[in-house]
Design brief:
Elements lengths: L7 H8 L5 H12 L1 H5 L3 H7 L4 H10 L5 H16 L11 H19 L2 H14 L3 E3 L5 E3 L7
Antiparallel strand pairs: 1-2
Helix pairs in contact: 1-7, 2-5, 4-5
C-alpha cells in the first residue's frame, strides 16, 4: 500500500470537487456507504456508481493506493479508527453530543489533510505583514491592507 491508511474519507471529501464525473460517482458511493464498499467487489462498486471496473481501479490508483484491495483495507482502517475515537464521559448521548463528535471528527480530518510547511509559511507571511486579519467561515483569510491595530 502506497498511501497513508488513515483519513481516506477525508481525502475523498477533499478531492471530490476535482474528480471527473465517473470518479466523482465512485467517491460519492464510497462516502455515502463506506461499509457497503468494504464488502463489494470492483464490479459491484462500478455498477453502484454507474461506472466501469477500470474507473474504479483508476480511482483507487489516483488516490495513491496500489489497487482496490489496498483502498478497501485503508477504508476499513479509517472506519475502525473513527469508531474507536474516545468519547467524553460527561458528554450527553443526544444531538448536542453528536454534533460535538462530528465537529471533532471534521477538525481531525482537516488536520490530516494540512501540509504543515504550507501552514507555517502562511503564518509567517501574515505575522510579518498584517495589522488586522479578516476571517470568514468559508476558508477566506485576508490581511486588511493599510489598517492600524485599534
Amino acid at each position: 500500500m502506497t498511501a497513508v491508511a488513515t483519513g481516506v474519507l477525508a481525502r475523498l471529501r477533499a478531492t471530490l470537487p476535482g474528480l471527473t464525473p465517473a470518479l466523482s460517482r465512485i467517491a460519492e458511493v464510497a462516502l455515502e456507504s463506506p461499509h457497503r464498499v468494504l464488502y463489494s467487489t470492483v464490479t459491484e462498486l462500478a455498477e453502484s456508481a454507474s461506472s466501469s471496473e477500470g474507473s474504479v481501479i483508476r480511482f483507487c490508483k489516483d488516490l495513491g493506493f496500489g489497487g482496490f484491495q489496498d483502498f478497501k483495507l485503508a477504508l476499513a482502517t479509517d472506519l475502525a479508527a473513527s469508531r474507536a475515537a474516545p468519547r467524553g464521559r460527561d458528554e450527553p448521548d443526544n444531538l448536542v453530543g453528536e454534533a460535538v463528535r462530528h465537529a471533532q471528527a471534521a477538525v481531525r480530518e482537516t488536520g490530516q489533510l494540512l501540509e504543515l510547511a504550507a501552514v507555517e509559511g502562511v503564518a509567517k507571511m501574515i505575522s510579518g505583514t498584517a495589522r488586522r486579519l479578516v476571517t470568514s467561515g468559508r476558508s477566506v483569510c485576508l490581511p486588511s491592507p493599510n489598517r492600524t491595530t485599534p
